[in-house]
TrEMBL record, chain A:
Presence of the UniProt keyword Electron transport in the record: no
Annotated TM spans: none
Residue stretches making up the Rieske domain: 30-127
Pfam families: Rieske_2
Protein's gene: nirD
Record CDD domains: Rieske_NirD (cd03529)
Protein name, entry field: Nitrite reductase small subunit NirD
InterPro entries, per the entry: NirD, Rieske-like_NirD, Rieske_2Fe-2S, Rieske_2Fe-2S_sf
This protein's UniProt keywords: 2Fe-2S, Iron, Iron-sulfur, Metal-binding, Nitrate assimilation, Oxidoreductase
From TrEMBL, chain B:
Name this polypeptide is given: assimilatory sulfite reductase (ferredoxin)
Organism: Streptomyces humicola
InterPro entries documented for this protein: BFD-like_2Fe2S-bd_dom, BFD-like_2Fe2S-bd_dom_sf, FAD/NAD-bd_sf, FAD/NAD-binding_dom, FAD/NAD-linked_Rdtase_dimer_sf, NasD-like, NiRdtase/SiRdtase_haem-b_fer, Nit/Sulf_reduc_fer-like_dom_sf
EC main group: oxidoreductase
Key word Hydrolase present: no
Originating gene: nirB
Gene3D superfamilies for the chain: 3.30.390.30, BFD-like [2Fe-2S]-binding domain, FAD/NAD(P)-binding domain, Sulfite Reductase Hemoprotein, domain 1
Amino acid sequence: MTTLSVETVEAVETAAQTATVELRVDGAWVGVCDLSLLTPGRGVAALLPDGRQVAVFRDRNGGLHAIANRDPFTGAYVLSRGLLGSASGRPFVASPLLKQRFDLQTGRCLDDENVTIAAYETRTSHG
Amino acid sequence: MTAAANPPTIVQIGHGMVGHRFLEALADRRVPDRARVVVLCEEPRPAYDRVQLTSYFSGRTPDELSLVEAEFMTRHGIELHTGDPAVAIDRAARTVTARSGLTVTYDTLVLATGSYPFVPPVPGKDAEGCFVYRTIEDLLAIEEYAAGSRTGAVVGGGLLGLEAAGALKGLGLTTHVVEFAPRLMPVQVDEGGGEALRRTIEGMGVEVHTGVGTQEIVTGENGSVVAMNLSDGSVLDTDLVVFSAGVRPRDQLARECGLPVGERGGIVVDAQCRTPEDEHVYAIGECALAADGRVYGLVAPGYDMAETAAKAIAGETGGSFTGADTSTKLKLLGVDVASFGDAHGTTPGCLDVHYSDSRAGIYKKLVVGEDGTLLGGVLVGDADAYGMLRPLTGSVPPLAPEQLVLPSGAGAPAALGPSALPDDAVICNCLGVTKGAIRAAVTEHECTTVPEVKKCTKAGTGCGSCVKMLTTLVNEELEAGGITVDKGLCGCFVHTRAELYEIVRALRIASYAELLDQHGREEARGGEGCETCKPAVASIIASLAPTIGAGGYVLDGEQAALQDTNDHFLANLQKNGSYSIVPRVPGGEITPEKLIVIGEVARDFGLYTKITGGQRIDMFGARVDQLPLIWARLVDAGFESGHAYGKALRTVKSCVGRTWCRYGVQDSVRMAIDLELRYRGLRSPHKLKSAVSGCARECAEARGKDFGVIATSNGWNLYVGGNGGADPRHADLLAQDLSDAELIRLIDRFLMFYIRTADRLERTSAWLERIDGGLDHVRDVVVHDSLGICDELEALMADHVANYRDEWAETLNDPDRLRRFVSFVNAPDAPDPSVRFVPERDQIKPDLEILAGPTLPVRTLEGTPSA
Ligand code: SRM
Ligand SMILES: Cc1cc2nc3c(=O)[nH]c(=O)nc-3n(C[C@H](O)[C@H](O)[C@H](O)COP(=O)(O)OP(=O)(O)OC[C@H]3O[C@@H](n4cnc5c(N)ncnc54)[C@H](O)[C@@H]3O)c2cc1C
Ligand code: SF4
Ligand code: FES
């Protein structure tokens, strides 16, 4: 299991207009959308070039996170539609279907230690 | 279990409340380990809570009424024969024979046969449609017969008669009470109390006839009841008669085997509850004539007798029963009546202190001895003080008697909490539990909740009238011990939902983040919050939006991030990630044109359609990106969101009612539509459901709803706190024969009071059972405005009604809001390839196979416009 660091976007307000959210997929940075499309506390689904689905979130403090969009408990591609929360200072998303929680930094399921989903490193690129 | 070769045999006849208590007392003393215990039970079911019998009509099932813990009989090796009454006792041979032919030889015989209802010997008393009120079977029969009746009469205006009248009223019958004495409840209350009681009972729509006797039951051609002839020459038309003219001890078996009985019945026993004639035979409960020469028709003295007899049989000394308190509190819907101690002031030299307010139907009297000792009293219309006063009886109260009868607010005994009581004051009269025992349950037995204390001490498990007092005591004791129970909503807030509601309302906080950072738990401040409190706070803000100046639209600003996915997309998420759409169909009434539109939309988008359990149509299988297109078609045709996704009003179901149905007495469809349109969009702690039935046949199942309305010939009856689902509950009657305006005003108040005070995800049923004072308290607040908040509650609802807007149309009108309705942020026009369907019975169902595999037949970004 890999722990990925999360870049906290400083001065989001000023950079918001022009920043692009990027994910590290198989070693390369892939842009997915403009930062302004992310509502703090919610996620969006994005398609990777190879067809994989990722759920991309922006937390209340501006942190960006990306994990697989597939809910491993039901197989449905819905994690991007869950609600964010934090437990012991670490952000998580709760699946909108059966409410299992996933750590946004590691993809680890907080309610079932045998389950982990992919998590992606994120950054914003300006200009 | 090892038993002696020939263990002694104890035979008990009758398995009622007292009989079961006796078995428990034997078990406590491990008697069944060394004796064979055989119980003959006439009724088809083991002992149940007869005191709470009437609660069957407010939804308690016979199973829930049972007094017998699972496994009790097997664990103690007790042989219980249900449906097999004893028919003969042979004292010489020491045998009892049952109807089945079973004959048992006893060493000890315990008679616990209770009472039978006395039916005055009037002609026609056995006609079809005549009932008594004693067993679950009686109630089942009354309920069935009432379904085909309009009017019911109760013979007897005592405690049970009024309880029965309340039940008939609740069954939707026009109800009469006929009492021979000049006032109601002649045994318990005095003249003044009887008058106040009469006004209250009449105010509930029950017709009271006092000072008249029943002379004859008149039957129709088919032999069933049609009327009653009364002693004043009048005729009362009625379809059903319930006799509740007192009870008589069931002492027949004892008489037949030569045991002495009292002049007015009752098996003569001594202070050990043993028959003086035969040392092998005991009698306990309502069938016994106690050593003080009285037959007790209440359960508490019976329980004392059970303990006494068990002690004697177990060979313990010191137990005796020589008399008991006959305090009572009436459990009748909507009327508070209590009498305790020397209610009639028969002690020489005693004085009365009265308080009465005839307009409000309140009458209170305390009987005080020369030295200031409280001897007894009568409370009608407001019996809140009963819990305090009864335990004080026999002592000099810490406050002057006149202060004890003043209503709250007028110099009431605010200072007089349960802390004023001595430790030996009996708090639970039914089970004889003292304040000291309750405190010990907390301090010594480490009970930390009221249910635990109830289980540990048994207090509050009888008539229930002491539960309020019990709760106060337990909480005080917990607090004194420094124990604080974490009632917080979640890991982020120490407050309950109701407390957060008050904070948001009072401080006009329209932002979740602000609430979390200022009022959250220290460790949660500045954090993300969680999936529990976010939607709960969003709902509080939404239901107060107009009042606190927040935007009412659920998808705007911060609100967007707080809502569950269903509220966020204004549709219901299904197992494969697709959504379902439910347009509002108020009252379930829909035109053919609108039906056709639904059909066309579903066909054009390939949706699965199903009639819901809520009298409307659900369309399943829409992708996120299709939602706005589908709504656009629906909104054009005049539909709006049905809020199937929200913790909000769902449906107000209706029956066809007076317009078409031959039985209907009001226009139930119109009322259902009015209610649905009034409360649509109202956010609440949990979903809200309602229904309106056009007559007492109740085809709309209104009593299964949070607020249910049933038509009467005079208007509407309002029931609250009903629930279907996993833990069903019938709604309780809140008020009767309301006009349209009165009905709506009461519902406005009820809903707003619920929204204000309920916990997260607490339906009205659970809320009603939880809150202090239960239904009575809610009635006080919303009907009698006891907290003085009704104006405010009505204003809140008026704000809601004035500010309602359809969320679908609002979304469609705003390109910014529409932006989130895409499957992929970087491929807005690409449908989600995981949302696929396969055929099922000429429609579709989710393709789950596609979701099961680790990889998905993919759609790549090629060919779709990039972000
Ligand atoms: C669609 C429908 C079933 C149907 O095809 O008939 C339905 C579907 C669901 N019900 Fe229901 N209930 C539906 C009528 C009912 C009824 C019947 C009624 O309303 O008369 C009841 C019993 C009445 C009651 O609520 O007291 C009912 C009692 C429940 C319960 C248990 C509630 C409780 O207090 O115990 C739940 C679970 C919950 O809410 O926590 C539930 C939950 C649900 C959920 C939300 C489960 C879920 O999370 O997916 C379903 C979502 C609906 C959806 O995706 O569209 N549903 N559900 C019905 C929609 C009615 C409508 O037009 O809005
Ligand atoms: C509607 C209602 C409300 C009440 N409310 C209150 C209240 O608020 N407070 C209060 O203190 N009391 C109340 N009571 C009275 C209370 O229920 C009784 O005091 C209590 O049930 C007496 O218990 P028991 O065991 O003596 O008699 P029961 O509970 O009547 O039990 C006697 C049992 O013996 C059975 N039996 C009789 N003969 C035979 C036989 N030959 N063989 C086998 N079995 C036999 C009967 O079928 C019955 O099941 C109420 C009673 C009713 C009906
Ligand atoms: S409840 Fe409605 S439909 Fe049913 S019998 Fe009464 S009026 Fe007719
Ligand atoms: S006084 Fe009846 S249950 Fe406590």
